[in-house]
Amino acid sequence: MGKKFVYTFHEGNGEMRDLLGGKGANLAEMINLGMPVPYGFTVTTEACNQYYDDGGVINDAIVSEIFDHLAELEKLSEKTFGDPTNPLLVSVRSGSRASMPGMMDTILNLGLNDDVVEGLAKLTDNPRFAYDSYRRFIQMFADVVMGLSKGKFETIIDDIKAEKKVYLDTELSTDDLKEMVKRFKAFYHAQLHEDFPTDPREQLKKAVEAVFKSWNNPRAIYYRKMNDIPSSWGTAVNVQMMVFGNMGDTSGTGVAFTRNPSTGENKLYGEFLMNAQGEDVVAGIRTPNHISELRDVMPEVYDEFVAITKKLESHYRDMQDMEFTIENKKLFMLQTRNGKRTAKAAIRIARDLVEEKLLTKEEAVLMVDPKQLDALLHPTFDQASLKHAVAITRGLPASPGAATGQVVFNAADAVSYAAKGHRVILVRLETSPEDIEGMNAAKGILTVRGGMTSHAAVVARGMGICCVSGCGDIKINEETKTFKINGRVFKEYDYISLDGSTGNVYGEELKTVPAQIAGDFEIFMSWADEFRTLKVRTNADTPRDAKQALTFGAEGIGLVRTEHMFFEGERIKAIREMIVAKTKEQRERALAKLLPMQRGDFEGIYEAMEGRPVTIRYLDPPLHEFLPTSSYDITTLADDMGMEVDELKGIIQGLHEFNPMMGHRGVRLAVSYPEIAEMQTRAVIEAAINVNKANPEFNVVPEIMIPLVGEVAELKYVKDVVTKTADEIIKENGVKLDYLVGTMIEIPRAALTADEIAKEAEFFSFGTNDLTQMTFGFSRDDAGSFLNDYYDKRIYEQDPFARLDQKGVGKLVEMAARLGRETRPDIKLGICGEHGGDPSSIEFCHKIGLQYVSCSPFRVPIARLAAAQAALRNK
Ligand code: PEP
Ligand code: MG
Question: Which residues are in the PEP-utilising enzyme C-terminal domain (predicted)?
């Protein structure tokens, strides 16, 4: 027998997630736990991969396996697919290993056609229900399988409601719904030049195929890239017997979380609607009831549901997000999964579960996604500026945080305006999966419709972006790009502010203040610190950044980019003088002006770090980056230097390089102009002596780092300049001062000859930004323009500048670390490229035995947690 591609729910279990997807595995598991789940089967993720391997066709073997299982489902349900006298209807839902917004989600009521709907009407004695189900099915099928926009169907619904002068869907009569079906089908035909498919088996095949296809739609690809999900996982498809929440007042449907997904509070949280189906709860058209009200409507069902939620949570030992339907007073569970939650809730839940003895500390540390912590590090509103602000309206506090920005009205505008460096707030009637990129680009999201479980709310929480949803007072006009609230009109680019923790909306720009690590967050981070072995340093160029990083738990500085200090005020003048100097004396004069400034900077940084290690990297970028370009600046510089303008222009032209990234930069500058290294050494050493004098307890030990080395002899040449200068200063001052000289490994040749380089270098810091650039041979500044084609064509799945390419660049890093240790067993090894703040790259650093990672201040907590998880996963 060949591979098995379809499993009934009864054959599966919770361990089979890779094969059955999260939804399928959990449905199977709920059945194993004896819970009421409608019968069904799962088409596996391997079938999805097979579909792609076969060139986008579901092969005959899989098709016949699907229909065999359908026959079994008919037996179990005692109903027949396509039989008007006793019809089986099914739902078709996608379900990959990780829950993924952006993919095809759900088709309900599949199996209906003109005959079956009549049969269903008779059988249930409820024609309104039958036609309500039918119109929903046509709309969902047309939208998700055939790609017709939902909007037009909504317009047809609105037209009929207007004609009938009713407000709610539930007020429409059977005849109205019949008319709706007619118009839907006419629209379907007009758009697609074919009739709506009447053969239920054809409907099913098409729906399964649509799920497979949705695995590779642009939104799903974008989401995978954002969340490190490989395309090779594929998605499963769940086909399940329908149960109906829209059968009348004793039926209903809802979604609930075992704990509050916004705050983490241990209290059942959710919403339901009576006489409704699937999407109604999240679509935000009718306002749902709070889950606790179900107790009054149907006490037995409520008690049964609560008992199930408790059992599920202790079984999965995590907060659950569940969907249920009540059909004629009988409860059915349609889904359970570990619920998405805000970062704040994630921390609180992790902590509470340890206190409730459901989890160990290790397990709790492993359950929080490090990237999610980012949301906790964002600012909140400054209390003083809030005092005078008056909220213009209030919506639901869907995803916490504070956001200020300029209003835009669609996802594309959000992406393009944010790319220009603006803070944007995306204001929408409601959001849908195609808005995902715009939502990610926005600082905050405001929607008119939708509850706490609406698309906007769920997705924003997952992304850690502030969101206020269900702000019904707002009258929005997406065409004219305006919205109105209490008579006040807001246009595109007007400022507003959102408080995602209270739901308040302010019609102005408000000041924000930085976050702090305190309370639950602090305790959780202390647990993470117990387990990690990697140290976490920061990349900081100013005392202010250094202090910020310290409050986030940095244990040192892994990279001070000294050139960043040269761009400010008067300094740029001095550096320009140094660059265009014609003689060594001229250059030394300019360097003498820079010396006190650099020394002052380093003193500030040493003081801020209070004796923790500080790695100072010498001048790195190509010199022309500092040169004047405007004619005013050129004339001024020529005047200052007593030079002719034309002569200066000649010098500037002479500094032009075709490939500056591979040009006169890094260690090469110090080889050509050793006086630069001398000045920087003087600043580093004198600053350390001064700070140690004032604060002997700090005992600063500077780490001097030479960039862009590719050959041991060039390192030795510059190192000799450094040690000669440093030793003289130390001697002159009559003090004792230790210091280290090391290098960055950021050129492939340095990695290849790391054993030789380690003879001179007391430490290596992997500069994986340049190392990635030089290994791939594409520019870190320009690759963005074509890498998107690589992601679209799935040649690369991840940005190698954001996530370390372990296969290629990682091989060089690992080899260099090994060679370095062979020569110098106690060599210090760290990383300071952007990858030092990326969780999967951090795990790699842990595995190859680096001592520390260094990242930007705001990523320090993320790195601390990722390092702890790496240690726990690789015990
Ligand atoms: C690197 O190349 O990884 C690095 C940290 O240096 P920079 O980004 O300054 O080139
Ligand atoms: Mg570099």
Answer: 520-870
Radius of gyration of the chain (CA): 32
Q: What DSSP state is assigned to residue 344?
A: H
Among the listed residues 69, 378, 455, 624, the single catalytic one is 455
According to CATH, the superfamily of the domain at 244-341 is ATP-grasp fold, B domain (3.30.470.20)
- Which amino acid belongs to residue 722? V
The architecture (CATH level 2) of 378-513 comes to 3-Layer(bba) Sandwich (3.50)
Which residue pairs from 871-875 have beta carbons closer than 8 angstroms and sit at least 24 positions apart in sequence? 871/531, 871/532, 871/533, 871/534, 871/846, 872/362, 872/365, 872/366, 872/531, 873/366, 873/843, 874/843, 874/846, 874/847
pTM: 0.81
Tens digit of each residue's pLDDT (9 = 90 or more) over 417-467 = 999 999 999 999 988 767 888 998 999 999 998 766 677 777 787 676 889
On whether the CB atoms of residues 134 and 176 are closer than 8 A, the answer is: no
Going from N- to C-terminal start, the domains of the chain cover 6-243, 244-341, 378-513, 532-622+657-873
What the block records as the tokens of 281 is: 């709860």
In this structure, the residue with its CA closest to atom 8 of ligand 1 is 769
Verify whether residue 656 is a known catalytic residue. Answer: no
Q: How far apart are CA 57 and CA 67, in angstroms?
A: 16
> Given ligand 1 and candidates 541, 561, 859, which is best to mutate, with the most ligand atoms within 8 Å of its CB?
561
Question: How would you label 124-145 residue by residue, b for 16+ Cβ within 10 Å and e otherwise?
Answer: bebbbbbbbbbbbbbbbbbbbb
- Which residue type is seen at 348? R
60-91 per-position pLDDT tens digit: 999 999 999 999 999 999 999 999 999 999 99
**Domain 6-243 fold:** Dna Ligase; domain 1 (3.30.1490)
Find the length of the chain.
875
As a whole number of angstroms, the distance between CA 828 and CA 645 comes to: 48
Q: Report the C-alpha gap between 406 and 502 in whole angstroms.
A: 20
Q: Which CATH superfamily is domain 532-622+657-873 in?
A: Phosphoenolpyruvate-binding domains (3.20.20.60)
- Angle subtended at Cα 764 by Cα 761 and Cα 765, rounded to the nearest 5 degrees: 145
Q: Quick check: is 48 catalytic?
A: no
